[in-house]
Amino acid sequence: MDGLKLHDLRCFDAVAAQGSFQAAAQALHRTHPSVFAAVARLEEQLGLRLLDRSGYRVSLTNEGRLFHARAQLAIRELEHLRTYADQLASGEETMLRVVMGDVCPRPEILGLLSRFFAGRPRTRLHLDYETIGGPVERLMDGEADMVFHRANPSDPHLERIDLCQVAFVPVVAPGFLPFEAGADITPEAMRPFTQCVIRDTARRPSSENFFVLDGAHSCSVPDHMMKKELILHGLAWGHLPAWLIEEELRDGRLISIAGRHIPGRTETVAAVRRRDKPHGPVAEALWRHLRDSEALAG
Fold it and tell me: Where, by residue number, does the polypeptide cross the bilayer (predicted)?
């Protein structure tokens, strides 16, 4: 085991994923013989037959399947370690990947990021917008360093800093309903009317239901700005963040129908990151800034 090479593990991982030496070689931009030799060397060092080569496509043996699961973990950890060493050597990350979720108060979050990155010109902010389950999925899939969104506080893989609370209000435009809009409106009364909902950008959508009426006609939009426009034009009804519709509620262009039957809801916006991966100096500085300054308090 002393002579185990990361190169050999990566070749074995590629063959297991691609199903052939040729496909693995293409994926790794290496020659077929070099990949074949790497896997053979790994099997010899381990004293295990990792691959069954008797079929048209190579497949994992039982021992190979068990070893592959551990090898993938080791490869990821070594890649994290190499990335962290590079970040420490350079002093700063060249890029920080941040995802804003649909529950975020955009002006406050964007202002916070603008102030922070103004003092770090060597680090480029790569900013994405995702909805519903998308932000946390990107984080768990290693496609983001930090997200600003809601998150399950009991998830052991995540750590969070609560930043602010955002109230969501169910609203309609004047004249949208053929009856008086009041606090006693029931879901049954709203079922005939189109409900506007945000599309989930997660590749593996969850079954979470944010007061979507079963059986009601719905239309989907990519963000709350588009949702607001549809509701203002009397094309649908739905829940919108209070920070986005303060003026419209005040001047009567939107009417709240929140009540005991159709409640509003409050979401806690948090900065969220993985517990189980290293974070570079700039990511740590941003985390400390959020934790120490309570940047969005009040």
Answer: none
